[in-house]
Amino acid sequence: MTDDLPEDLPDDVTALIDETAYEETSDFPVERGYIWTSCASVENGNPLYWDETAAAEITGGPIAPPSMLSTWFRPHHWAPGQDEPKLPLQVHFDLKKRLNLPEAIIAEFTTVFHEPVRPGDVLTTCQRLRSVSPVKTTKLGRGRFWTIDVEYRNVRGELCGVESYTGFGYRREVREEAKSA
Amino acid sequence: MKPQLTLDQVAVGDTLPVLRYEVSATTVVLGALATRDWRPMHHDHAFAVERNGVRDIFLNTPNQAAWFERYLTDWTGPHGRPGRMRFRMKDSVFPGDTMAISGTVTGVGVDEAGCGWIDVDLDLAVGEDSKTGCSARIAVPVSPDDNPWARRGERWRP
Question: Complex ipTM, two decimals?
Fold first, then answer.
């Protein structure tokens, strides 16, 4: 059904905008094994990641490829005492649930890179809801777009990067639901 | 080590050499594990087909970001420092596909801090179909003795 989707954004969702949420520390320090595995997966021969002399000269020592930023925060598939798998981008899933929008996609995302991440760094992260759109209708269905920033910092408090995700949470149109029922 | 590419060697409209790569199931699984992405649609054929309704497992987005980064820095050399990447996901890349990554320079300039920037529109395509678009901004040396990686704080404005 689409006619019970309220036009007004709930006050508790409005209150979340620009608030810091889900501050976390990564499960493990940045390590070179993953850096090499990542480079191997795309056959990246950049000497910054393979040649100690080049890394010392250009980046003051080894660094991780900037595009690996979010890798350091993906949770273990399993850990002792962990009942349910942790979800990255938890605010996205919270919004789906709170706004009663069962389907969601990430339409696009932007990453801005700041201080390089280095082996041994233990990163911290937090999420911030930046905006939620009015109700929109797209070819996927009826719902809302939202933008969530994920900020990454090293132990020295230096900003390493910010990812901005644009999600669209939606309900399929009634006609499609009838077809699939 | 001297820079491979300096800002004066680049102009708007320049095209980057196309990178072609035959994607296998190993490419997809290795890419998913390298980015700690354990979701089954990136390693479990039956799950991808039956639950996602696609023809096979497919490349995850973080690994595509790594492909784009590798493509950019193959061109700039190690002095190239990525500043910003914006991704638009359109369709999936499967084992058996030959992906082609291409790029066109859309902007060249120097910011107020003296940092040289190149804007590049990147495309990951299979055949005639664009699968993922990426607008990237990467810093390169403005002279042979410049190094964008040495910039910190207010001198780095990606």
Answer: 0.96
